[in-house]
Amino acid sequence: MRILCTLLLLLVSYVAAAQNFSFEKAIAEVDSLVEYNRYTLADKKADSLLLLAEGWKKEALAEEKLRLLLLKAKMYEKKEDNDKALKLLLDVSGQASSGKFYKILCRAYIIMALIYEKQQNVLLHEQYLNAADNIRKEHGLEELYSSILIRRSLQQIFFRNNIDSAIYYIRQAKMYAEKYNNAYDVAASTLMMGTYSAREEEYPKAVTYYGTSVRYFLKTNNYNDALFMYYNIAELYKLMGQMNEVWLYCDSAYALLPEVSTKHKHIITKYKYGLFEETGNIDSALFYLKKAYDLRDTIALKDEIARINEIAEQYESDKKEAVIESKNRQILLVISLLLVIVIAAVLLLRSNRKINVQNKIISKQVEELMRTVNQKQMLLSELQHRVKNNLQHVISILEIQKESADFNNIDELIRGNQNRIHSMALLHKKLNMSENVNEVELKRYVTELAELVKDSYDSRRKQVGLGINCEIEKMSIEKALPLGLIIVELVSNSMKHAFKNRTTGRIHIEVAQDSGGRNRLYYTDNGKGFDFKGIVSKGLGLEIIKGLIDQLDGRLETGNKEGFELLVLF
Residue 100: inside a domain, yes or no? Predict the structure, then answer.
């Protein structure tokens, strides 16, 4: 399954890479056709590529589609079809802005500024040129700055007639064009500097600038513009009266005849005829005049042949694109089938994985239930053991009571035993509410137990307050049971004896740990008091308290300064 997925991803990646590569190459071809003024073929080629890109519906080709639309707009601008160009540029700029293709957006704004410059619309020209410059600054598109500066230079000439500012901007444009190796802008900037110099009648400087433009035009195979630069240089030397240089640059232009269009051949041939005529060389003048007329007659024929060739090329191109489109459809079909297989396999794997997960969850729940049952069985056994031990405590208390000679009041006897049994029952209640049968929440146990015993003796005629402070959170049952029984006996004794002939009283119980880590029970009441250690008594309660303190391995301290006071450390 993993191998199948990997092969599918490789196939998709290969197809996508092949598409991107072919588009890059095709876009470069369209750009070249536009540059060399082959507009009809460029337009058809661009439309075919756009149709192919639309058929693939790939987001990866979104930028390439916008680049093609931008080239079409550039072509319309060169053909002076400005309405079409503007409409297309507005569409391109909107898509480029939403898609964050900032370089395309900046180029679109530059061309829009150029169109409004030609239409003498100062406001819109300035608006779009500034917009392009702002995008350039914000996104660091310095390689486009030379194109913006060229427009700024022409802005100063056409709209403000400020030659100094125009020269400043065109020098900046040349600097940035050279820095980012933008051959077209270098040639355009030096050409404009030559034009500005010629306007100021600085002919030698203009010759130098035109010469620089020639080198860049030749380097970029732009022979038509190179021929015009030679022509301009020849004209400048003619103005300076240097005829030898005029002939030299006229011959340089004429040497480019095999590389230039028929229209350009006609221009330079006619120019050479004029030079021979001015120098009185009639034979040579007639030769070049005849050649110029022959070239003029063939321009129409060549244009017709070019149109036929374009149609033929377009036919071949359309045929190739049809083959490519057919292959692309086949590849799409194969990919679709593979995707169906992969999706089915993934769904099957997900279904199996879901079943396995559910089985694991069920197994885990069964294990948890078994663990809970075992735990409950252990808790039940432990509780049964505790009940047995505590019942043994009850039997022992009853045995001690049987031997006591001071209990003649049957009600008191029953109430005392009830309180003792209540303490054990309360302890078991706390254990049943907890998952841990070895420990009890001490504060709740002590509070409820003390209040239960106090309430069993309380009456309307006598109001006894009970204060409890327990700082120990939990205690083992082995210590909690004897501690609870001690509290039962102490509270019972206070309620029975401490507050005789009194209507109010106060009992305070505190359970905490001392600085040495030992547990501490501190019990006081504000009754009449007695000496716990000094009194010799056969009372069952006192005997039980002493036995329980021994059971806790406790140490006893008492006092009776203001009532009864007892401290047990255990």
Answer: yes
Q: In this structure, are 322 and 436 located in the same domain?
A: no
Whether residue 332 contacts residue 9, with contact meaning beta carbons closer than 8 Å, is answered with no
Which helix (H) or strand (E) element contains residue 561? none
With beta carbons less than 8 A apart as the criterion, state whether 88 and 73 touch: yes
Could you list the residue range(s) of the whole structural domain that residue 39 is in? 18-117
Quote the CA–CA distance of 335 and 333 in Å, as a whole number.
5
pLDDT score, position 137: 93
Task: Determine the longest span between alpha carbons in the chain, in angstroms.
Answer: 168
Examine the domain organization and report whether 423 and 547 are in the same domain: yes
Strands ordered across the beta sheet of 463-470: 463-470, 504-513, 519-525, 564-569, 555-559
506, 465 Cβ separation under 8 angstroms: yes
Encoded amino acid at 558, one letter: T
Residues 319 and 411 in one domain: no
> Crossing angle for the helix pair 410-432 and 540-551, nearest 10 degrees?
30
Q: 181-190 in b/e burial notation, b at 16+ Cβ within 10 A?
A: ebebbbbbbb
CA distance 508 to 521: 11
Q: Which of 117, 138, 160 is the last residue of a domain?
A: 117
For residue 20, the model assigns a pLDDT of 46
pLDDT: is 349 or 305 the higher one? 349
- 55-87: pLDDT as tens digits: 555 556 788 888 888 988 888 887 778 898 999
How far is the C-alpha of 44 from the C-alpha of 318, rounded, in Å? 9
Contact 492, 457 (CB under 8 A): yes
Sequence-separated (6 or more) residues with CB below 8 Å from residue 247: 275
The CATH number that applies at residue 98 is 1.25.40.10
Count of other CB atoms within 10 angstroms of residue 115: 21
**What average pLDDT does this structure show over 330-346?**
79
Q: Is the dihedral of CA 381, 385, 386, 388 positive or negative?
A: positive
Q: Residue 143 domain-assigned? A: no
CA separation for the pair 336, 446 (Å, rounded): 77
Q: What is the pLDDT of residue 62?
A: 81
Distance between terminal CA atoms of the chain?
71
117, 133, 152: which is the final residue of a domain? 117
SS3 sequence of 142-172: HHHHHHHHHHHHHHHHHCCCCHHHHHHHHHH
Task: Name the pTM for this structure.
Answer: 0.45
Number of domains in the chain: 3
Q: Is residue 347 part of a domain?
A: no
**CA dist 143 to 28, 290, 467, Å?**
18, 47, 87
β-strands 463-470, 504-513 pairing = parallel
Lowest mean pLDDT among 158-162, 173-177, 331-335, 346-350: 331-335
- pLDDT tens-digit readout, 420-442: 565 556 555 555 555 566 788 88
- Transcribe 203-263 into DSSP letters: HHHHHHHHHHHHHHHHHTT-HHHHHHHHHHHHHHHHHTT-HHHHHHHHHHHHTTGGGS-HH
Give the chain's mean pLDDT: 78
